[in-house]
Write a structure and sequence with these properties.
The protein is of the alpha+beta class. The strands form ten sheets. The protein has an eight-stranded parallel sheet. It has a six-stranded antiparallel sheet with strand order 29-30-31-37-34-35. The longest helix is centred in the middle third of the chain and has 17 residues, at about 415-430. It contains eleven helices and 38 strands. The two termini are about 50 Å apart. The model is unreliable at about 1-20 (pLDDT under 50). The protein has four domains: about 5-165, Jelly Rolls, CATH 2.60.120; about 185-265, Immunoglobulin-like, CATH 2.60.40; about 275-560, Aldolase class I (TIM Barrel); about 575-665, Sandwich (Immunoglobulin-like). The protein is about 15% helix and about 30% strand.
Length: about 675
């Protein structure tokens, strides 16, 4: 990529001064994942549809395909000299689509080419001398943007020798730790409502922070329930359905706190999104009983349970694996016992003992299977053993099942919707028949619009996308995928935007393992955590808890941010305003106490002001604004609120109505 040509004559003559040619920097090297697109994710060397770049019958090995409207910003800082490319509409549209390609230097259009589907690629070239910011833009050509698959082929920037465009993390201020340090006062973080089925065992560890020891009390205790103040655990069973209001009090050397929580004994469980940790991103196929126990101990040592995290879930690879078992004896052996029950692999000598260990820490235990014969990692699935498997999970004491489609496609029967929901309905019924609550987490990547029917087959949550991993295109794609799905969310029925990829994740997408430090910038990690809380997504931590850093821990344990995720109304955020040219988005969700959470997201690379007009959101009157990450009041605003947000970051606020403020007449929901 980098071409340095020593002026040979000078060298031969032994002259002191050597000259170097300028730097040729291909577009692919400028972070195509940052490119904003009207649809899909831009990738190096690929059309937006993921195929080879092909325009007018010619295939181009180099370049980036995008979709109008699209913008890609290059922070040149006066070091760029020129840009050249061949541009056109990709052949994958079969002659459809029309776009305009533009090169914009410091706000001025310096090159422009209009192109239509079916045409050959055209040259585009621009002098960029002295430009601070260069934008490659593609617009829809004056009609709509259907089929506007636009290719920048053989696209190359020329930079002065030894210089390059700034990288994403260098283009903007990066946020550090914002979560305030604990002041030691007791604070309770229980959800306002907690569900358990009648006659099923209750296990709830009261989340409380503050200097230890904290004395806790809970009253009145419903018949059948006991509270252990030493372990902070409410347990027992309640036979009679109904709502049981409890008051939790906490006292320590710094003060007192009190919180109300309603125990809702009824058919709906997971009244707020499940929060916990899952083994996949940290250990993938290397998980073991010992690693799970170490994770449980770290979970408690880090105090995640004090902030409301409660599940510790084993993902794939607790079962036997015939393929991997050939080279790894710990995965070998009969997949099932003589009576047909599932046989865990040698790394998990006693599944019941492991669940007991998790419960003994006041936490809940989860595991993983597939409706297919094999899981995605090739371990034994539940196909044709659904009921015995569910019976076994319950007998061992598990509280959560992630059920992953994987190989099910090879055995699926039925057509259309029935084909998709049948295996989940079957396992949903098997879990429902158990004498304990088992949260049913559907994992089929959003197929057949699962948000519309996941709850009908007994699910409490369902993955909405394929796997996300710790890159910006992946997380940003995950955010965009949630936009049409908010209306399906309610208590006990959650869109699962996938596990958190904050901190150090081992699994890095595809067959790529051991990614090292996060590939997300700090700002991107704020956006990830903020938006998952806005979506009311389950929050499953993915990093290795035994090696967590302070920044990640602070991201995961901000109680005011977590309270948005855990809000009792269970209303997911919708995107209520968007400025596509600027790359800013406002997401809003109503909260149970009559306030609103607002996320001001800057998808652009550089810092910019994000402005919210209350009238545009359907709000009237004055609103108190609180910054939830910093846990600070910002003041009262009566027509608009604006804030400067660094590139790829999100500012999260809570709006509290002042006297006379509320939704404008005729507006019933801020999300409309
Ligand atoms: C994927 C799933 C991941 C993980 C993995 C295990 O299909 O989406 O979250 O569970 O399988 O093999």
């Amino acid at each position: 990529m980098k071409k340095r040509v020593v002026i040979a004559a000078a060298a031969v003559l032994g002259l002191a001064v050597c000259g170097f040619a300028d730097e040729a920097i291909p577009l692919e090297a400028t972070g195509p994942g940052r490119m904003r697109t009207g649809w899909g994710t831009a990738q190096a060397g690929k059309s937006i549809g993921g195929l080879d770049l092909r325009v007018g019958g010619t295939t181009y090995a180099r370049g980036v395909g995008t979709h109008a409207p699209s913008r890609h910003r290059i922070a040149a800082r006066g070091n760029a000299l020129a840009f050249s490319a061949r541009v056109g509409v990709d052949d994958e549209t079969h002659g459809r689509g029309s776009v305009v390609f533009r090169v914009i230097a410091d706000g001025k259009v310096v090159a422009e080419v209009a192109a239509k589907g079916g045409e050959g690629a055209q040259p585009i070239a621009a002098d960029l001398t002295g430009a601070s910011t260069v934008i490659l833009e593609v617009t829809d050509g004056g009609d709509d943007n259907y089929y506007d698959h636009a290719d920048w082929c053989d696209a190359v920037f020329t930079f002065k020798d030894g210089t390059r465009p700034l990288r994403a993390a260098e283009m903007t201020r990066q946020l550090g730790i914002l979560t305030p340090k604990d002041d030691g006062k007791p604070r309770l973080h229980a959800p306002a409502r907690y569900g358990v089925r009648p006659g099923h065992p209750l296990l709830f560890k009261v989340p409380v922070t503050g200097v230890k020891p904290v004395q806790l009390a809970v009253s009145p205790l419903p018949k059948g329930v006991t509270f252990n103040a030493a372990t902070r655990v409410l347990s027992g069973t309640v036979a009679k359905p109904g709502s049981y209001p409890l008051t939790i009090t906490a006292r320590n050397a710094k003060g007192r706190a009190r919180q109300k929580m309603t125990l809702v004994v009824g058919e709906t469980i997971a009244l707020t999104p499940p929060m916990g940790w899952n083994s996949w991103n940290a250990f993938a196929g290397g998980v073991s009983d010992a690693k799970m126990r170490a994770a449980v101990e770290a979970f408690v040592r880090l105090g995640l349970d004090e902030h409301g995290y409660s599940y510790v879930n084993i993902d794939d690879f607790w079962q036997k694996n015939p393929e991997n078992g050939r080279s790894d004896p710990t995965l070998a052996g009969p997949e099932r016992n003589a009576d047909g029950t599932i046989a865990p692999n040698a790394r998990f000598p006693d599944m019941k003992a492991l669940a007991d260990f998790i419960h003994a820490h006041g936490l809940k235990a989860g595991l993983y299977s597939s409706p297919g014969p094999y899981t995605c990692g090739g371990c034994t699935g539940s196909w044709r053993h659904e009921r015995p498997d569910a019976d076994c999970y319950a007998a061992w004491g598990y509280d959560y099942l992630k059920y992953d489609w994987c190989s099910y496609g090879t055995v699926a029967t039925g057509e259309g919707h029935e084909r998709h929901c049948r295996p989940y309905r079957l396992m949903g019924e098997c879990l429902r028949a158990q004498p304990r609550d088992i949260v049913f987490s559907l994992c089929q990547y959003g197929q057949d619009n699962v948000s519309a029917w996941g709850a009908d087959v007994g699910g409490q949550s369902w993955r909405t996308t394929g796997d996300i991993f710790d890159t910006w295109p992946s997380v940003y794609g995950g955010i965009r995928a949630q936009a049409p799905l908010w209306s399906y969310v309610r208590p006990g029925a959650w869109n699962d935007a996938d596990m958190l990829v904050l901190g150090r994740n081992v699994w890095a997408g595809g067959t790529d393992f051991d990614a090292g430090a996060s590939r997300l910038t700090p700002n991107e990690q704020y956006t990830h955590m903020t938006m998952w809380c806005m979506f009311a997504s389950p929050l499953m931590i993915g990093c290795d808890l035994t090696a967590i850093d302070d920044f990640t821990l602070a991201l995961l344990t901000n109680d005011e941010v977590l309270a948005v995720d855990q809000d009792a109304l269970g209303a997911a955020a919708a995107r209520v305003a968007e400025d596509a040219a600027a790359g800013t988005e406002i997401w809003a969700r109503p909260l149970a106490d009559g306030t609103f959470a607002l996320a001001l997201f800057n998808a652009d690379d550089e810092e910019q002001t994000v402005r919210v007009s209350f009238a545009d959101l359907g709000l009237v009157g004055a609103w108190a604004v609180r910054d939830l990450w910093r846990q600070q009041d910002e003041g009262v605003f009566d027509a608009a609120y604006s804030v400067s947000v660094p590139g790829h970051a999100t500012h999260l606020v809570k709006l509290t109505p002042q006297k006379g403020a509320g939704l404008a007449p005729g507006v019933r929901d801020i999300r409309r």
